[in-house]
Every structure is written in structure tokens, then in C-alpha cells.
Design brief:
binds calcium ion; Immunoglobulin-like; 5 helices; 4 domains; disordered C terminus; 38 strands; Pectate Lyase C-like; alpha/beta; 20% helix
Length: 451
């Protein structure tokens, strides 16, 4: 017995030591992982910083890090295969790829973002995805100015999830080209490009909203693709003075509106009217037999940040026939407000589209509309997504405020309260009549009894 006990541990000694060593290594690695904090790397071409070039900072970074780039001029050829954020301090941060070949920036990591740059694109400005695997990803390109692409400002290639938002595209051949990608493209400005958005061999569902396409040869080209069942949802965009606003692919239906009351797009060459004053044209805007905006907006859309509600960020869209500015939400006063500016005496209106998460947070369903602090009559619609408010006025400049209805005596006499009181009165009268009839009948019965 003893001998056996002595022999077995001796055999196991090397194995035990090896396991112990592996354990220590793993533990150390896990501790290092746990203690590694996301880091911000500063890049400046000509000042004190961690690096003078963007790619050097990308090489040094780890997942979760941020690369913050100071104003200056930077060379292209940036390849990002890490889950990081690259942020420009201002639009004076220029990535200059003029006369370059290929893509100035390539984003292949699954969770990556680039924001705030001015990109002189050369051949292609940003390639998103680059044919990486089809798993869901989150690649974000926001608030950049992208210009002079001989090919594409942004080329989204096999990317199952891309958000392209609040960028400005000027003077590109294709501002955005997508291929087999699932893209959300919103709040961008496309100006003086040959093509705004073009889909080529793209079978994925995408949504385009709150973009402005202005003075392009072609606003949106829905390209050619195999699966005719895939629809693209395109609404609340502005199409202004493009040679061709929209070019659908043959006999493929797409959704150019989001139903009523949400509505479709604003088309500067729409010549219908809005006789019933709801901000939506009374006749359809027809692109072709298969592509019809049934609810065209009669004024351009302005999209504003509405903050975070229940953990999600929202926009408020304001469609107006004149300028809308200085949009604000005041959570303590339960109000949102903005300026509308037009020339004196002009008839102005706005159609405000408030996501229900925002209106619930601010005023539930009970609100009033003020024009320069004076209560104003308005029209209201509600669906499962939004509250729609239409108000008109005579211009110069006004401040429009929509706020939670103030508790007052008038609210006690709401139509519902009046209706309830009326019903109560009617019931009382009926009850009184019945009682009176019974009281009258009583003496008669007693008479017959006497007889
Ligand atoms: Ca600098
Ligand atoms: Ca109408």
C-alpha cells in the first residue's frame, strides 16, 4: 500500500507542475485582461502626441481604445482590423488621398467607428467591411466630409450592419456604393455628386431616411440585384434639384413612404397641393409604375437630436416650408422648442414628428403648442411609433414651443368631463321620471283595492 502511494505521486509530479504553470500563466493573463483599461491615443502631425501618424496609433491600440486626432494633414492607407473608435478633433483634420489608388481607409473590424474627418478620397474614401464574414457587425461612419472620390466616397462591401450618418458628400463619382450589405443611411447631405447612393448586386434590406440629396446627377440608384423581394425603405428624405431623383431597378417595388400619417419624402419637383393642411401632398409622387410615394411631404425635413430615452437615441423630424433652427428639448420644463424663420407676411407651417418614447417622456399625450408663448390651434395624429403635430402661422421669426399641458381649471372641463356630466344628468332625469311614474301609479292600485 505504502509503496504504491509513494510511486503514484512521483509519476504525477511533472504533470502537476505543468498544470500549475499553465494555471499561473492563465491567471496572470486574465488579471492583465481584467486590468487593461480602454486607452485614448493622441495623434498630431506636428505637435506633442503619442504618434504623428494615424496608422501607427492603430497598430499600437487594442480593442476598446480610442484614437483622437488633432488638426493637421495625414496620409491615407489606414487599415483598421481592431474594434476601436477613431475620432477627429475638428474638420481641420484632413486625410489627403487625392490622386491615391485604392481605399484611403479600410474598416474590417466588426465594431469600429470613424468620425469627424475631412477625407479627400482619391479613388475610394472609406471601404467598410471589405468582404469580411456575414455575421452581424456594427461599423459606424459619422460626421465626416468626404469629397473628390473618383470611385466611391464610401464603399460598403459585404457588411452585415453599417450605420452611415451625418456625413457630407461632395463631388464624388459615387458618394455611397453598397454591395451585399445591410446599411442604415440617415441624416447625410449629398451635394454635387454624380450618384448619391448606388446599390450594386445588393440583396440586403436597408433603410435610407432623413438624408438630403441636392444637385446630384442621380440621387438614388437602386442598381441591379437578384432577389426582387428585398425592399428598401426610403422615407423622410429630401430630393432637391437632382437631374434624376431616383432610379429604381426594373419592375422592382420599393417603399418610398412609411404610410399615413408618417409620410414619404420631400420632392422639390412635386407639383401637387395640400388642400387639407396636414403637410402631406394630396396626390402621389410617381417615380414609375412600381415605385410610388403615396404620401409625399410638401416641405423639406430637418432632423434634430432628441437625446436618449429608455436607453435609445431618437431624432425629431420637423418638416417646414421655411428655415427651422435652434431645436432644444428641456426635460425639466417638459418642453421642446425651435425657431421658424421666413419672410414677413409669408404663410408658414411645420409638421413635427415626435417619437412616442420622447413624447411619453415629455408630456404623455397632453400637450399644448405655443407660438411666441401664445397658445395656438394645431392638428394632431398618433400611430404606434410617433406623434405628429401640424401647426401654421404667419411669418416673420417665431419660437414654437410644444410643452406638457399646464394643469388648470379648463382641463377640468375637457370634452370628456363635459360628456360624463351630461350623461349623469340624463341618467338622473330618467331615474327621476321612473320614480315619479311609480309614485303616480300607487294611488290608482289602492283605489282598485278599495273597489
Ligand atoms: Ca497638427
Ligand atoms: Ca394633405
Amino acid at each position: 500500500m505504502l509503496r504504491r502511494r509513494e510511486r503514484v505521486p512521483r509519476k504525477l509530479i511533472p504533470l502537476t507542475l505543468a498544470l500549475l504553470l499553465i494555471g499561473v500563466i492563465l491567471a496572470t493573463y486574465r488579471i492583465q485582461q481584467a486590468t487593461a483599461q480602454p486607452k485614448t491615443w493622441i495623434v498630431d502631425d506636428d505637435g506633442p502626441a503619442d504618434f504623428s501618424g494615424i496608422q501607427e496609433a492603430v497598430n499600437a491600440s487594442s480593442d476598446g481604445d480610442t484614437i483622437f486626432v488633432k488638426p493637421g494633414s495625414y496620409s491615407a492607407g489606414i487599415y483598421v482590423a481592431k474594434n476601436i473608435s477613431i475620432v477627429a478633433e475638428s474638420q481641420d483634420v484632413v486625410i489627403n488621398a487625392n490622386n491615391g489608388i485604392g481605399s484611403a481607409i479600410v474598416l474590417v473590424a466588426g465594431n469600429v467607428s470613424i468620425s469627424g474627418f475631412t477625407i479627400l478620397a482619391g479613388d475610394t474614401g472609406i471601404m467598410v467591411g471589405a468582404g469580411t464574414k456575414d455575421e452581424p457587425v456594427r461599423r459606424v461612419v459619422s460626421r465626416n466630409r468626404i469629397m473628390n472620390a473618383q470611385d466611391s466616397g464610401i464603399f460598403v462591401y459585404w457588411s452585415n450592419g453599417a450605420l452611415i450618418t451625418e456625413n457630407t458628400f461632395v463631388n464624388n463619382y459615387y458618394a455611397i456604393r453598397t454591395r451585399n450589405s445591410n446599411c442604415t443611411i440617415n441624416r447625410n447631405l449629398f451635394e454635387n455628386n454624380l450618384y448619391g447612393i448606388i446599390r450594386k448586386e445588393d440583396n440586403k434590406a436597408s433603410a435610407y431616411s432623413e438624408n438630403t440629396f441636392k444637385n446630384n446627377a442621380i440621387g438614388i440608384d437602386l442598381g441591379f440585384f437578384d432577389d426582387r423581394s428585398v425592399q428598401i425603405k426610403i422615407y423622410h428624405n429630401n430630393f432637391q434639384n437632382n437631374t434624376i431623383n431616383a432610379q429604381p431597378y426594373e419592375r422592382v417595388r420599393n417603399a418610398w413612404d412609411n404610410g399615413y400619417p408618417c409620410g414619404g419624402n420631400y420632392w422639390s419637383d412635386y407639383n401637387g397641393s395640400d388642400a387639407d393642411d396636414d403637410g402631406i401632398g394630396d396626390s402621389s409622387y410617381v417615380i414609375d409604375e412600381y415605385n410610388v410615394d403615396a404620401y409625399p411631404l410638401v416641405a423639406p425635413v430637418n432632423a434634430f437630436d432628441a437625446g436618449t430615452w429608455n436607453g435609445e437615441t431618437y431624432n425629431v423630424d420637423v418638416a417646414s416650408n421655411f428655415t427651422v433652427s435652434d431645436f432644444q428639448i428641456n426635460e425639466t420644463q417638459k418642453a421642446m422648442s425651435f425657431n421658424v424663420t421666413g419672410f414677413d407676411g409669408a404663410s408658414g407651417f411645420c409638421r413635427v414628428i415626435v417619437p412616442n418614447a420622447v413624447s411619453q417622456g415629455l408630456w404623455q399625450t397632453s400637450f399644448s403648442v405655443l407660438v411666441d408663448d401664445n397658445p395656438q390651434a394645431y392638428k394632431k395624429w398618433l400611430d404606434s411609433a410617433n406623434t405628429y403635430i401640424y401647426v401654421s402661422y404667419t411669418h416673420s421669426e417665431h419660437r414654437i414651443t410644444i410643452r406638457q399641458e399646464q394643469p388648470s381649471t379648463t382641463s377640468l372641463l375637457s370634452p370628456e368631463v363635459i360628456a360624463s356630466i351630461a350623461l349623469l344628468v340624463v341618467l338622473l332625469i330618467i331615474a327621476a321620471t321612473i320614480v315619479r311614474k311609480r309614485l303616480r301609479r300607487k294611488p290608482e292600485t289602492s283605489k282598485t283595492m278599495i273597489h
